[in-house]
Amino acid sequence: MRSLPRVATVVVALSVLCLAVVALAAGAPPPSPICEVCGTDTINGATEPGTLDIHVDESGDSQWVAQVPVNETAAAHYQNDERALATTVNDSRNRYHAVGDDAQNVTATIEDQTVHVEYTVPNVATQVRDGWVLEYFYAGDSPVRYELVAERVSIHLPDGYAVTNRPAAGSIEDGTLTWVSGESADDENAAGDDFHSRTYVTYAQSGLTNTAASWIAAAVTFGPVVLEHTVLAGVVPVVMVGFAAVSTSTVGAGRSQELTGRSRRVGAVGRTGCVALCRRLGVHHSRRTLTLLGLAVVGVLAGASWLLGFLFEALLVGTFGLSVVLFLPFGHALARGERSAWLYGVACLLAPLGAVAALAPFPSAGTIFVLSLFVFLPAAGGAAVLGYALSLVGREIALDGNRKQREKQQRQTSTNG
Question: Phi and psi dihedrals of 199, rounded to 5?
Fold first, then answer.
């Protein structure tokens, strides 16, 4: 019967999570088709979804060319009635299309049973020094999702330019990126049709300097929103881990005083385990050795998660695990009275922000709330508890070393006396 409250708590928590997810999903708009006129249910008489080619020029503007095959009857009708063709093209434009009013100089023609729709979209790419970033499809912190709809979508860069990043689900060949419908429907952010809602392209002319410039362009373009969301979503991890760091710096009522009570028991047990492990490995239980061993364990766990396909879990294990491990040298340095001890404390605080920054920006404030409550809170809580325990181990190892050093000095003094 005692387990009933726990079960009820879990059920309530899961219910709240489900309601939050449903609310977020309900508030999101329908997917936005990349190609406005593609698909078999857009242009009357269409027989295939069609294709879209986006040609980017050296000024960052673009020319979009959509081609949709139609049946003979529709082709004959459009050839004889250009107004009907213009009407069906205008009617096919979805309310939630990706381009919207950005499309300029829209023209529609029919040739060889294929409807050709061309239009220009200015300012799809931004230049920073010698690097470029095409951020037109980067939804950022909006709830926008994309739908490929077309059988193929290709982005053609200016002559002499090469792609310097790896957009999700896209293939790269000779300055052209291509997405083909159905090739990666497992992507959660692609709305089931292979085009990620955070797609961006960095490109530059050949050369390491130009490549670096394109990455700088991406950092300048997306940096502000990523920083803002990292700060908002990082409040919970910083507060939780910060509480453990403050507790670590005050335990024992001073930097070098002895631990007492339960703190000393935890530290002593941990120190005994560390000494035994290091003896088995044939190494000395120094602060550097124990820290490297801890980092190795975290690296193995994160790497295994990554190889098994649990990328999100690998990110959490790597960053929060790093924070936990750094508490050991933090406690050790405090016990030895080192002035640089605060550096370890700052590192413990900043490490979890790596996961937050890697996930940012988030689609909405609701996403930040859900992740903070159901992901970052338990992860930071676990890191705080384990980190504090490791800090006690580090302090006990340092204090034990101090005691042995004092005993050695006393023996030497007695011998000399």
Answer: -75, 130
Q: Who's near 218: CB < 8 A, 6+ residues apart?
A: 133, 135, 165, 200, 202
Place of tokens 């100089």: 105
Q: Quote the CA–CA distance of 321 and 83 in Å, as a whole number.
A: 64
Q: What is the pLDDT of residues 138-157, one digit of tens each?
A: 876 677 788 888 999 999 99
Scanning the structure block, which residue is given the tokens 């979890």? 352
pLDDT tens readout for residues 28-73: 567 888 888 888 888 888 999 999 999 999 999 999 999 999 999 9
Which of 307, 331, 339, 314 shows the shortest CA–CA distance to 386? 331
Instruction: Let me know the angle formed at the C-alpha of 156 by 75 and 85, rounded to the nearest 5 degrees.
Output: 20
Of 198, 199, 219, the residue nearest 140 (C-alpha)? 198
The answer to whether 210 and 197 have CB atoms below 8 angstroms apart is no
Contact 411, 403 (CB under 8 A): no
Nearest CA to 91 out of 111, 115, 73, 113 is that of 115
**How many other CB atoms are there within 10 angstroms of residue 408's CB atom?**
10
CA dist 400 → 40, 326, 371 (Å): 76, 20, 41
Both structure tokens of 59: 């000024």
Tokens of 247: 């507790």
Q: How confident is the model at residue 340 (pLDDT cuts 50, 70, 90)?
A: confident
User: Does residue 240 contact residue 382 with C-beta atoms inside 8 Å?
Assistant: no
The DSSP code sequence of 263-318 is HHHHHHHHHHHHHHHHHHHT----HHHHHHHHHHHHHHHHHHHHHTT-HHHHHHHH
Q: What is the pLDDT of residues 212-242, one digit of tens each?
A: 888 888 888 888 888 888 999 999 999 999 9
To which residue do tokens 């008489």 refer? 45
Q: What is the mean pLDDT of the chain?
A: 83
User: Which amino acid is residue 14, in one-letter code?
Assistant: L
